[in-house]
């Protein structure tokens, strides 16, 4: 099965004007500004839903969440849902996309900020149709088909429509309505007719074979007939009528229709599709499928995952042997393109590069699966990572075994070493990767060719009491190096110590501690140093009972070391740790203490599932409790002593035998590049950082440039790690802007953070494509296109002109309008009434 899969959303139709790129305005015309485009999208949404989907959706009211308007709706099963709308930069080839969350029933439709205003209704029609299809399939617990059916080509067996197919049918219904709306100008209706005909061609609903090609025409017509039969019940009466007249072969069409179709086909041949596929990154079988194209079944998953893990181990051993043999043969360390780290970033893996991956995170996590359901990460198929519905039901979590199978398959597509690596600047001016294999064999090094990629995942967690400005001992050392005099003996001695207690001892022996504590510029460093000393002491006093949440997720702990656990921080990591402990130890009780529960957790499965299983208030067995209050913040490790004089942990009235810190993330230079950072410091060089974007304003990660001793080395950081900018390189306002951008790019209603599994896979593929095409752009801050544009209260002349052909169809005008949705005609600052009034 080929991995060139179109993303399941409203993608461009090659050869038509339905694209995510607005045409250059003619002289004297004004392109619709983003804030007016937002207002236009919000105003058109009620017309689209009422006009095309009134039998399945009822608009209740428009609300405001403090940042943006959104809509509450009720479906034909009397279930309430919400739809949020936004206009954002989207990847090339994508006109619109929808985050469908069948867990919370909160959904987000995003339209390209470069879309032509005339296509807003069509894009919304597609997205609403697809949204309804996903919800209905999830409600009936139906699997999604592996491929779209409305594509050209032969058909084998019965036709099963995908969510994307249903979206295309909604486009047909929309275009048919415009073709027959007598209130529209003839030019507008004629254009809709052409687009309807072009879409029939694109979706395989018409035979394209020449009249003389008898056998081919028979086969194609049979396939088209099967597709038409499958969509018939989804078509409006007017769309069905138009389809009958226009789905005939080109030689049976009338003159103007035939000429338009001929021109369209010529444009398609000369302008290849710009769909988001993995073509060019490597022609491989999609993970979860065999070479012959057959799908691995759910029953076979365990066996196949183990076989692929063994395959990966074998490739790692073979790669190590080849590297060592080349070193012996040539007397020199081999040169290779290098990738350090894996995870979901393997979706964009360069098969020619040497992958060095510790095989961590998802290969270690003993939990049930991803925090997202199969529906929430359904776009993984678009980037060739895997089919999220293949091994689980729509509203269930994607299992760890499925993730491991996908990642091992992708990792095995080229040379790899299971292990870790550090990048080191050589005295010869070269950049070297020092590799430590997981199998315990002798370390080795390779000369790095080109720009290496680091994708080592989210950075370490903060220990209680540490200062985010100087979050780690390595950062403490860096800060002290900058503060202490150049001739201080502390510099050399710190290079030989790694722990907080050793660091503090050096400062005391060199009589530097008092001066540093009195120095305001050293305050944050000393605060972190003290917190780290307390942490190390507590871990020594109570071995195995003082942990970071990541140690639980990586299964580096004993769940039976205690029966009462206190987790500080009500994060997703805390929910995961509680789930793992309670599952592994039937006698365990867990208390989660924090100041608030992040809103995104209510969009995901684990919080609800954990409460239903383990929390008394939600019908569980009572082994899990939450203690959420504004003042419940970790100000240090809560070590205490009980009435028997035994060491324990206490926050407020919550006491436990073991403690887990699940707090914020640190933001250091990635560990794989920290030797380079130290090299820059020692050589009095400089370290510069840039954000990486493609030409469509898609975030690809960040770039670090290390300069010292007359040499310069560049490193690209992508994946989850790229969401946490090193605070010694990037100013806080850039991180804040990146956070704001991420919240729009991957809204919390999706159930996934911007650094989550599916977004990381997308980012890695976009980075690979941008590199291939030489389109990686360096920025000091996110592009202005990511600045939130508020919807215009009053439509401008330019936006009204751009939307002049977007009148409601006769069917839409005849629909009843819920009063809460539409303000009175004389209401001030009403986008909807203003647009209607100017028509």
From TrEMBL:
Annotated spans, Disordered: 799-839
Biased segments, Polar residues type: 806-817, 828-839
Name under which the protein is recorded: Uncharacterized protein
């Amino acid at each position: 099965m080929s991995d060139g899969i179109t993303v399941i959303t409203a993608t461009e139709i090659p050869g038509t004007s339905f694209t995510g790129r607005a045409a250059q305005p003619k002289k004297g015309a004004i392109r619709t500004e983003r804030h007016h485009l937002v207002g236009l999208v919000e105003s058109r949404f009620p017309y689209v839903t009422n006009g095309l989907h009134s039998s399945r959706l009822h608009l209740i009211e428009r609300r405001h969440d403090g940042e943006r308007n959104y809509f509450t709706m009720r479906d034909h099963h009397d279930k309430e849902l919400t739809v949020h709308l936004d206009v954002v930069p989207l990847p090339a080839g994508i006109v619109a996309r929808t985050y469908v969350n069948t867990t919370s029933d909160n959904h987000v439709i995003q339209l390209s900020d470069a879309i032509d205003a005339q296509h807003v209704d069509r894009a919304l029609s597609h997205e609403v149709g697809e949204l309804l299809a996903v919800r209905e399939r999830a409600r009936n617990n139906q699997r999604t088909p592996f491929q779209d059916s409305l594509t050209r080509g032969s058909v084998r067996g019965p036709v099963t429509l995908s969510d994307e197919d249903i979206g295309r049918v909604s486009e047909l219904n929309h275009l048919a309505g415009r073709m027959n709306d007598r209130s529209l100008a003839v030019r507008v209706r004629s254009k809709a007719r052409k687009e309807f005909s072009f879409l029939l061609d694109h979706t395989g609903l018409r035979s394209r074979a020449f009249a003389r090609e008898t056998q081919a025409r028979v086969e194609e017509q049979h396939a088209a007939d099967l597709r038409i039969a499958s969509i018939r019940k989804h078509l409006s009466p007017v769309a069905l009528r138009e389809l009958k007249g226009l789905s005939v072969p080109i030689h049976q069409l009338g003159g103007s229709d035939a000429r338009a179709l001929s021109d369209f086909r010529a444009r398609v041949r000369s302008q290849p599709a710009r769909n988001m596929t993995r073509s060019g990154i490597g022609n491989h079988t999609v993970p979860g499928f065999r070479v012959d194209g057959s799908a691995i079944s759910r029953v076979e998953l365990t066996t196949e995952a183990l076989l692929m893990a063994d395959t990966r181990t074998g490739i790692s051993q073979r790669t190590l042997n080849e590297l060592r043999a080349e070193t012996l043969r040539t007397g020199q360390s081999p040169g290779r393109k290098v990738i350090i780290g894996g995870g979901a970033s393997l979706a964009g893996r360069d098969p020619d590069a040497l992958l060095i991956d510790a095989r961590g995170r998802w290969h270690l996590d003993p939990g049930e699966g991803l925090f997202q359901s199969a529906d929430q990460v359904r776009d993984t198929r678009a980037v060739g990572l895997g089919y999220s519905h293949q091994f689980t039901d729509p509203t269930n979590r994607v299992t760890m075994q499925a993730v491991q199978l996908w990642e091992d398959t992708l990792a095995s597509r080229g040379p790899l070493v299971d292990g870790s690596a550090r990048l080191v600047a050589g005295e010869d001016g070269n950049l070297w990767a020092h590799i430590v294999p997981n199998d315990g064999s002798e370390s080795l090094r390779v000369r790095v060719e080109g720009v290496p990629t680091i994708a080592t995942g989210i950075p370490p967690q903060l220990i209680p009491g540490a200062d985010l400005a100087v979050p780690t001992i390595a950062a403490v050392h860096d800060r002290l190096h900058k503060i202490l005099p150049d001739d201080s003996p502390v510099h050399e001695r710190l290079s030989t110590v790694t722990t907080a207690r050793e660091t503090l001892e050096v400062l005391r022996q060199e009589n530097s501690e008092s001066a540093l504590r009195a120095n305001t510029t050293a305050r944050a460093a000393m605060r972190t140093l003290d917190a780290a000393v307390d942490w190390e002491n507590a871990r020594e006093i109570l071995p195995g009972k003082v942990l970071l949440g990541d140690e639980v997720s990586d299964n580096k702990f004993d769940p039976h070391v205690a029966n009462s656990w206190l987790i500080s921080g009500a994060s997703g990591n805390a929910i995961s740790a509680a789930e793992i402990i309670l599952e592994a130890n039937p006698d365990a009780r867990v208390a989660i203490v924090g100041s608030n529960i992040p809103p995104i957790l209510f969009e995901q499965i684990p919080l609800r599932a954990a409460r239903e299983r383990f929390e008394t208030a939600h019908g569980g067995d009572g082994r899990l409790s939450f203690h959420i209050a504004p003042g419940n913040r970790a100000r240090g490790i809560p070590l205490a002593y009980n009435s028997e004089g035994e060491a324990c942990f206490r926050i407020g009235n919550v006491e436990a035998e073991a403690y887990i810190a699940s707090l914020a993330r640190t933001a250091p230079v990635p560990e794989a590049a920290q030797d380079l950072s130290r090299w820059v410091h020692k050589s009095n060089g400089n370290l510069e950082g840039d954000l990486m974007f493609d030409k469509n304003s898609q975030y690809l990660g960040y770039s670090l440039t290390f300069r010292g001793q007359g040499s310069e080395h560049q490193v690209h950081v992508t994946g989850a790690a790229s969401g946490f900018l090193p605070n010694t390189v990037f100013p806080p306002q850039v991180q804040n802007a990146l956070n704001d951008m991420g919240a729009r790019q991957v809204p919390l209603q999706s159930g996934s953070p911007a650094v989550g599994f599916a977004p990381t896979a997308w980012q890695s593929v976009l980075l690979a494509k941008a590199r291939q095409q030489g389109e990686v752009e360096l920025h000091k801050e996110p592009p202005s296109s990511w600045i939130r544009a508020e919807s215009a209260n009053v439509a401008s002349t330019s936006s009204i002109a751009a939307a002049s052909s977007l009148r409601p169809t006769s069917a839409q005008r005849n629909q009843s309008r819920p009063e809460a949705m539409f303000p009175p005609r004389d209401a001030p600052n009403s986008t909807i009434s203003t647009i209607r009034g100017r028509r």
